[in-house]
Amino acid sequence: MIIQKWTKASNYMGEDMSEYYEGPAQFPRSPDALTDSNFYAALEMLGGASDTVIIGSFGSWCGSFEQILVHESDTVAVAALEGITEQLAEYPILDEEDHSERETEATEALWTSMDMRERIEVLVKHQESVFASRANTSWDLHERAEQTYYEVQVLANE
What CATH architecture does domain 20-94 belong to? Predict the structure, then answer.
């Protein structure tokens, strides 16, 4: 079995979850297209949250995270979680379309939040026209300065 049971950290003071298997996690305060996409795709593949499939919230001094947990009594969901884990071991993306949408949204958010100086710096780095800094959307940027678009996409999804 690839999946592992939840284990209590030495400084953990919350509910005992040792009857649950660990699934994908996400970090709500620092969104990441791949992590978030896999988290929600896995949750959907498990049939959503229920009495036996829960989203546990955990926090510490270094931040908080949410994790899908599957109770050991739900053999169907445990088998599905095992399949999800095997899938992720073979290929890192559970849902290509959802991941692509999240990547595009993050790229758009970063491009529209950049001021003109920041946009020009990235364009100059790739020896592309500074006039592309006027692109209103990341897709317009893609059409005008493809290399810069891909750098913004990487920056937005680190």
Answer: 2-Layer Sandwich (3.30)
